[in-house]
Amino acid sequence: MELLGIHHVSAMTKHAQQNVDFYTELLGMRLVKKTVNQDDPSMYHLFYGDEVGNPGTELTFFEMTQIGQNHDGNNSISTTSLRVPNNEALQYWEKRLTEAGVEHEGIVEQFGRKVLPFRDFENQRLTLVSDENNQGVLAGSPWEKSKANPKHGIIGLGPIHLTVPNLDRTEPILTKLLSFSRSGTYTHHQTEKEVVVFETGEGGTGAELHVHERPDVLAERLGRGGVHHVAFRVKDEEEMHQWIDRLNKAKIGNSGFVDRFYFKSVYFREPNGILFELATDGPGFTTDEGEATLGESLALPPFLEEKREQIERQLSSIEY
Q1: Pairing mode, if any, of strands 125-130 and 76-84?
Q2: Is residue 126 part of a domain?
Q3: Contacts by residues 201-204 (CB-CB < 8 Å, ≥ 24 positions apart)
Q4: Which of 31, 59, 268, 288 has the largest CB neighbor count within 10 A?
Q5: What integer pLDDT is reported at residue 163 of this predicted model?
Q6: Which range marks the domain in which residue 298 is found?
Q7: What is the pLDDT of residue 124?
Q8: What is the band of 12 on the pLDDT scale with cuts at 50, 70, 90?
Q9: Are 135 and 227 in contact, with CB atoms under 8 Å apart?
Q10: pLDDT digits (tens, 9 = 90+) for 31-75
Q11: What is the pLDDT of residues 227-248, one digit of tens each?
Q12: How many domains, in total, are found in the chain?
């Protein structure tokens, strides 16, 4: 069994409308699914991605209107990367972010790639990463109706950064349980600390975890602008059950099989407390909506459909 790469990342926001404005208007991502948190239908769950929300392109947000600000720190998913086609695209984005007044660090190099670190309106840590020399997992397809220039558009998730106090606790989970392999190290441009890179599947930009070992910082306090979990791609439901068997045999506490309608999942925490999810590539977001109208109306899985009226009353309207 082999994980195919990053599936999605789920983060926290306090303001669904501002979130939609930032990620669709400025970043030009497509809102491919407007739905609710299936465990708490009183809150939105918004999915952004490429033109159809292919696995490996999905950045999602839970709206929690009473949530406090995230306090960055250890035991965390500390940065989410977003892939763009090439180095030229980074120059486009540097200019676009500057003109929009978005805080960024300029174009720097990270593990042999050009990257552009920046933050969103809630201080979410993001990095645009060039796919110019990518030899691994293929990216998604740019959205032709993007508010940003599709030529330079965001085409998927790149390396996900973890910050942990003790790499020795996390590494065996990645390598022995999940079959990631070490592919190198680099020195972080800000902290000057070593970052260890792990990859899975075909490797490359869409299949890496960058792990920062930082015993010198306090634990994160999760809030808006923070990341709830990262999910890794599993081929299909049959293989998902094999992964659950592997987790159980290793005595790793987990959620068991969870049907999210758009994909099937299992959740568990690695020893430093970071929440991981394994998620199948299918059936996908066109299961209940046509490709042309993805994200335009509130989509609910069948088991919540009978509560639609009640759920819609609890949600604010979103314009886009």
Answers
A1: parallel
A2: yes
A3: 201/2, 201/3, 201/4, 201/5, 201/136, 201/137, 201/233, 202/4, 202/5, 202/136, 202/137, 203/135, 203/136, 203/137, 204/134, 204/135, 204/136, 204/137
A4: 59
A5: 98
A6: 6-314
A7: 98
A8: very high
A9: no
A10: 999 999 999 999 999 999 999 999 999 999 999 999 999 999 999
A11: 999 999 999 999 999 999 999 9
A12: 1
Query: Is position 148 within any domain?
Result: yes
274 with 75: CB under 8 angstroms? yes
Per-residue confidence (pLDDT) for residue 210, from 0 to 100: 98
Q: Chain centroid to CA 101: how far?
A: 24
For the question of whether the overall pTM of this predicted structure is more than 0.85, the answer is: yes
- Beta-strand runs (E) in the chain: 6-13, 30-37, 40-49, 58-63, 76-84, 108-110, 113-119, 125-130, 156-164, 181-187, 194-199, 208-213, 227-234, 258-259, 263-269, 275-283
Q: What is the mean pLDDT of residues 282-305?
A: 96
Q: Which residues pair with 2 in a beta bridge?
A: none
Tell me the three state secondary structure of residue 258: strand
Q: What pLDDT score does 130 carry? A: 98
CATH assignment at residue 91: 3.10.180.10
C-alpha 125/C-alpha 94 separation (Å) is 16
Q: Is residue 319 part of a domain?
A: no
- 320 in any annotated domain: no
Q: Which residues pair with 119 in a beta bridge?
A: 125
